[in-house]
Write a structure and sequence with these properties.
By secondary structure, the protein is of the alpha+beta class. It is built from 25 helices and 34 strands. Among the domains are: 48 residues; 155 residues, Penicillin-binding protein 2a (Domain 2); 142 residues, Trypsin Inhibitor V, Chain A. Strands 2, 3, 4, 5, 11, 19 and 20 form a 7-stranded mixed sheet that branches. Strands 13-12-24-23-22 form a 5-stranded antiparallel sheet, sandwiched between helices. The longest helix has 48 residues. It is elongated and about 170 Å long.
Length: 762
């Protein structure tokens, strides 16, 4: 019985244990199934739902993208001379961790000598022994980099000194056309064409896509690919760097000679198309170092009295840098003064308000609506034709003509000539003119506007308006870029035929006005714009700076187009705040405009058409007579219209004065030939007679010619040399000073300029 109970208890225990095992099994299976379900769900989520997401994560870790930089497009002038280009430069760096202690001095000295970097600075970097990359110098040119390579090879510094190639924007012409071309900064163009066409120049970067393992080793992958960069377009500009050099040369001359207080600027423009051949401000800073102030700006900063490093000092410095970068031709306004009389005259002639022969009277001023407005000639011009009064820059004549036109019609043409908007030139920062409102444009405003005062325009607006007179009455859009080129040099975009033209005056009025202005260069206030052999139409201007505290400040300017009967170019030069005693545009700008017109037309191959009087005054380039027979020399001298004198006896020429290569005036010119018998040596070396140079500066040209020619000198005249007006010009300098003894026949160069009859002050 006891045994049975024991068996029953054991069975009961086994039953309970079985139930427990079963429960545990069920629990475990449940847990396993739940966990498996979760795992399956997660796997489904990973492999199906979020497959793309996690694949992207994996690829992000495995795949590397390396940018292939697009090459920035170059900028060219119209002759395909590079104005902005990319060049290879090098970063020189060292690995201090790999340089032995005993080699540090050699490395520092060698790199210091080659790279012109301070020895101590290099040595300090070499002491950073945990570093693998310490830059010694950036933007190193190829020749210097080659010298570094030779230094590495000679001293077995491979693995210690490195060169890393890179690209740098380079401006071959340095300071020429700087404000127009602009500069490339870290994030793109900062000003000029580099900014205006930044998108077209930049292009689109490409990239390499490769797979790499944890050890940065390349792995075969279907994802490996390459996207080629699309290089930026090249810009072909309308600029001609030969004409640019001509313009900049004359701007520099007028800046120095007339002490311009607020810079000078100039533009040379194709009158038919609006293409800008040259544009400059006299501050020509180096585009390869655009944050370095030019001497003039540096002096302003230096003598400001501010301490370097202070907030005020830095503010002034940046202000000066931005001023240096500013394109005065596009971004600044001025009152055009009497150069605007071209526009007033065009309006008056086009509307029939006046004809060239219309008689007008100038008594020295005119009272308009109770306001007396003076002429620059206080005694008046008297009664004369409209054309004559325009040539003499008479203010009352312009006021009378504008009144006959009427304010509404005048304003309509004022808008048509572009003065109430922008020209649309493809350069950044174009300023708008500052004008009257039509509601306030009354009789006095009409009168003062007629001669270019009480409103402001930009230089580019002014020359564009004048081009409309020169080209038959069409307003054109000034532009600097001609076309865009792809990598292969193919034109992908051409702007040449996309500049809209609209006619605002008739061709007949344009020609009529050109003739009047050309006559004004011969006998009017624009005499100093005269160029022998070229018929130049020009108008000078002098305006007050009425918004300045100093009421004596002036702006002198001259605008011209030539040849007047078939215009090719227009030229404008503005001298802002001349410090010279005479401030009129006829003195501070016209002679330099003449120089630009002369050299530019000659460069463009435009032939001269001399009058008989000009032929008499033309120059002669002296050849080598010693290589000729005496008879041939006589024939050539006489054919040129010169006289000659023989010194010695015989028919072999062994010496001459003036020397070969000299340039002399034909009128009154004389060649001195030293001769000896054929086959014989001259008895003695040439000992020419000497003459003493007189003082002729300040003389009228005609009187100076008489004095010098009678004294045994030859003469070369520069400046205003036309027969009618030139001989009445004044000699402002002579090439050889008074009192010096020189050989007979020596050429003295006289610079002439009209100093009276050229005033146009408003």
């Amino acid at each position: 019985m006891g045994a049975r109970l024991k068996i029953e208890r054991n069975l009961q225990n086994m039953k309970q244990w079985s139930k427990s095992i079963y429960a545990r099994t069920i629990f475990i299976l449940t847990v396993v199934l739940v966990v498996a379900g979760i795992l399956i769900a997660n796997l489904f989520d990973l492999q199906v739902v979020k497959y793309d997401y996690y694949l992207g994560k994996v690829l992000d870790n495995l795949i590397q993208e390396n940018v292939i930089k697009a090459e920035r497009g170059a900028i060219y002038d119209r002759n395909m001379q590079a104005l902005a280009m990319n060049i290879t430069t090098y970063r020189i760096f060292v690995s201090p961790a790999d340089i032995k202690e005993e080699d540090r001095d050699t490395v520092a000295k060698g790199l210091s000598d080659i790279l012109q970097v301070d020895y101590e600075d290099i040595y300090k970097k070499l002491l950073k022994v945990t570093r693998k990359d310490e830059t010694i110098k950036k933007d190193v040119d190829k020749d210097t980099a080659d010298e570094v390579r030779r230094f590495i090879d000679k001293n077995n510094f491979v693995g210690q000194i490195y060169l890393e190639a890179g690209s740098k924007r380079y401006y071959p012409y340095e300071n020429s056309a700087a404000q127009v071309i602009g500069y490339l900064g870290t994030d793109g163009g900062l000003f000029g064409l580099e900014l205006q066409y930044n998108e077209q120049l930049t292009g689109t970067d490409g990239k390499y896509i490769t797979a790499r393992n944890a050890k940065n080793q390349s792995m075969p992958s279907k994802y490996d690919s390459k996207i080629d960069p699309k290089n930026g377009y090249g810009l072909v500009t309308t600029l001609d760097m030969n004409i640019q050099a001509i313009l900049e040369n004359y701007l520099e001359q007028t800046y120095k000679e007339n002490l311009a207080g607020n810079n000078v600027c100039g533009i040379v423009m194709d009158v038919e198309t609006g293409a800008i051949y040259a544009m400059a401000t006299n501050w020509g800073f180096d585009l390869n170092s655009p944050f370095t102030l030019t001497d003039e700006y540096a002096d302003e900063l230096k003598f400001s009295g501010l301490s370097a490093g202070t907030e005020e000092y830095n503010e002034l410095k940046w202000s000066l840098i931005y001023s240096m970068w500013r394109n005065k031709c596009v971004s600044e306004t001025y009152e055009p003064g009497s150069t605007f009389k071209i526009v007033t005259s065009a309006i008056a002639l086009e509307t029939g308000a006046v004809t060239p022969e219309t008689r007008m009277t100038c008594t020295g001023g005119l009272t308009v609506a109770g306001t007396h407005i003076s002429c620059h000639k206080k005694t008046g011009h008297g009664e004369n034709s409209f054309s004559y009064l325009l040539q003499q820059s008479c203010n009352p004549a312009m006021m009378q003509a504008a009144a006959l036109v009427g304010k509404d019609t005048f304003w309509k043409y004022f808008e048509e000539f572009g003065y109430t908007g922008k020209t649309g030139i493809d350069l950044p920062g174009e300023a708008s003119g500052i004008n009257h409102k039509l509601s306030n444009f009354n009789a006095v405003e009409l009168a003062t506007s007629s001669f270019g005062q009480t409103f402001k325009t930009t230089p580019i607006q002014q020359i564009t308006a004048v081009c409309a007179v020169a080209n038959g009455g069409y307003m054109v859009t000034p532009h600097v870029v001609e076309s865009l080129l792809d990598d292969q040099g193919n034109v992908v975009v051409s702007y040449a035929d996309k500049t809209a033209k609209r006619q605002i005056i008739s061709e007949e009025v344009g020609k009529e006005l050109a003739e009047i202005l050309a006559e004004g260069v011969i006998s009017g206030v624009a005499k100093n714009a005269y160029v022998a052999g070229y018929n130049v139409a020009a108008k000078t201007g002098t305006s007050e700076k009425r918004d300045e505290e100093d009421k004596t400040l002036r702006v002198g300017s001259t605008v011209a187009f030539a040849p007047a009967d078939d215009p090719k170019i227009a030229v404008l030069i503005i001298v802002d705040e001349p410090g010279s005693s005479v401030k009129s545009g006829g003195t501070v700008a016209a002679p330099y405009v003449a120089g630009v017109v002369d050299e530019t037309l000659q460069y463009l191959g435009v032939g001269r058409n001399y009058t008989e009087e000009e032929l008499a005054l033309r120059s002669y380039d002296v050849p080598d007579f010693t290589s000729m027979t005496l008879n041939d020399a006589r024939i050539q001298i006489q054919k040129a219209g010169l006289k000659y004198e023989l010194i010695g006896e015989g028919d072999t020429i062994y010496g001459q004065l003036p020397a070969q290569g000299s340039r002399m005036q034909i009128e009154g010119g004389r060649i001195y030939l030293y001769v000896c018998p054929a086959g014989e040596e001259p008895a003695e070396p040439i000992q020419p007679s000497e003459v003493t140079v007189p003082y002729v500066t300040g003389y009228k040209v005609s009187a100076a010619l008489t004095t010098l020619i009678s004294g045994g000198f030859n003469v070369q005249i520069t400046g205003s040399v036309n027969y009618e007006a030139g001989t009445g010009a004044t000699v402002i300098s002579q090439s050889i000073p008074q009192g010096r003894k020189v050989p007979i026949g020596t050429v003295i160069i006289l610079e002439s300029r009209h100093t009276d009859g050229v005033e146009d002050n408003n």
